[in-house]
Design a protein that fits this description.
Layout: H1 4-16, E1 21-22, H2 23-33, H3 42-54, E2 58-60, H4 62-67, E3 77-80, H5 82-92, H6 102-110, H7 117-145, H8 151-182
Antiparallel strand pairs: 1-3, 2-3
């Protein structure tokens, strides 16, 4: 799922899995809930919706559209089809390297509630491994070029390193919790399930 159009497909199917939405609401939810789409335009969203309709994964929701037909401009509402639900589940079983890239990871994580524990753990561990590689690269770069960098560039690199370190600690905690819930130790009290803490900035 390396292409942006494919991760947008996953995001749209995931949001429509909850309930039907019209294009305006979909764009708002994509902008607010999923950081990867903060600059998403209608010129990108509507071709995606048209393609998903053509594939039979979503359909116009006549009941929702009819309810706003009396307004000056009726909005087309979309709903997930049975085939669309199957496609969404297929995409949510994907745990290859593309699933933990910067933009893609947030979208996958947003729908973790519909993902198996094994897939969640593979994606979280893959993300952690990728960030650990990034940290080592930044540390090596800092060690080699510290004397040649001005103070502001140096602080920017330090800030990026600290942010990555915080995310790795967050991932470590999530992975630990996932393992405890997926592979409980007999006789040990399990932590209560709940929403994970917000992802650090």
């Amino acid at each position: 799922m390396a292409k942006r159009s494919q991760i947008l497909e996953l995001a749209v199917l995931g949001l429509l899995h909850e309930h039907p939405m019209h294009g305006y609401e979909l764009r708002r939810q994509l902008n607010v809930q999923l950081g990867a789409f903060r600059a998403l335009s209608y010129g990108t969203l509507y071709p995606c919706l048209k393609d998903l309709v053509a594939r039979g994964w979503i359909a116009e929701d006549d009941t929702q559209t009819a309810s706003v037909a009396a307004s000056r401009r009726a909005k087309i509402s979309y709903k997930l089809t049975a085939e669309g639900k199957e496609r969404f589940q297929e995409l949510m079983t994907t745990s290859g390297s593309a699933a933990w890239e910067d933009d893609n990871f947030g979208v996958h994580f947003a729908f973790f509630g519909r993902t198996s524990a094994g897939v969640r753990i593979r994606i979280l561990e893959g993300r952690r491994s990728r960030l650990e590689e990034r940290m080592e690269a930044v540390r090596g770069s800092l060690a080699r070029s510290r004397d040649r960098l001005d103070s502001y560039t140096l602080e920017l690199q330090r800030h990026g390193l600290e942010s990555t370190e915080r995310e790795v600690r967050w991932l470590n905690e999530l992975i630990r919790t996932e393992h405890e819930q997926a592979f409980p130790v007999p006789g040990q009290q399990q932590p209560q399930q709940g929403s994970p803490e917000p992802r650090p900035s």
